């Protein structure tokens, strides 16, 4: 893979387009040392960014939870995201907006720092190859647990919160797995390192309540799609000992989309009709192959 700092194109940086290789920051930037940054991951399908407004709204809210304000309006950020894709000649791609505290002050206190914003976009194929999508990816248990909401701003998509995810995914890949499954502070199942998780039992969809992790936009979309098809969705606490009762499992996220899971440690799952039906429904929705009447919008998209 070509390193990200050696690519060509344009990045929207603090209100203007900057050549890709020139979009740099100082080594004493506050966010680099203290994790004071927030970001989003979005996808453009056939020239349309799915759930753009919802992602931008969450970016702004994440910044507020980290005690800083983004100095551009949501409308300006939405326009910048679209323009970034067009400037780079992209119609199917991944988009990464990020906001962070700058280098004006380097201490735990950051009141005098300037807030910067950048938006980049690049081609992104399927997160996993077709073979793994058919048989399901393999997960192991993560070493670290998701912190509770009273210990960290878990409702924010904050850069610093992902360090335990990087550690866990690196260990998983070194051991031959595709990802790791994280528990919450009480020992209940939370999510994978970068995706929410669902289970199937007797035609019912189960998923952990987002009490210590992001209530993902893809997660909310899948819940709405399932309920529109008459599938019962139960948000409940799931313990590792419960996994043997489930027949199907999948993870969801902007990058992962809807990805079947074939194994979690010693537990095996068989990707089936419910999983593949939701994969098809999600693909149709994000590519606008269904009418608005056929697919009710998730609450986060309509709000």
How are the SSEs ordered, and which strands pair?
Elements: E1 10-13, E2 16-19, H1 30-34, E3 37-39, E4 42-45, E5 48-49, H2 52-65, H3 74-87, E6 93-101, E7 115-122, H4 130-135, E8 137-141, H5 163-174, E9 179-183, E10 189-192, E11 196-201, E12 204-207, H6 217-228, E13 233-235, E14 248-253, E15 257-264, E16 267-268, H7 273-286, H8 299-302
Parallel strand pairs: 8-9, 8-15, 12-13
Antiparallel strand pairs: 1-2, 1-7, 3-6, 4-5, 4-6, 6-7, 9-10, 11-12, 11-14, 14-15, 15-16
Helix pairs in contact: 2-3
Question: What would you say this structure looks like, in words?
Answer:
There is one protein chain. The protein is α+β, with helices and mostly antiparallel strands and 303 residues long. The chain has two domains: 7-122, D-amino Acid Aminotransferase, Chain A, domain 1 (2-Layer Sandwich), CATH 3.30.470; 130-302, D-amino Acid Aminotransferase, Chain A, domain 2, CATH 3.20.10.10. The chain has eight helices and 16 strands. The strands form two sheets. Strands 8, 9, 10, 11, 12, 13, 14, 15 and 16 form a nine-stranded mixed β-sheet that branches. Strands 1, 2, 3, 4, 5, 6 and 7 form a seven-stranded antiparallel β-sheet that branches. Mean pLDDT is 93; it is low at 290-303.
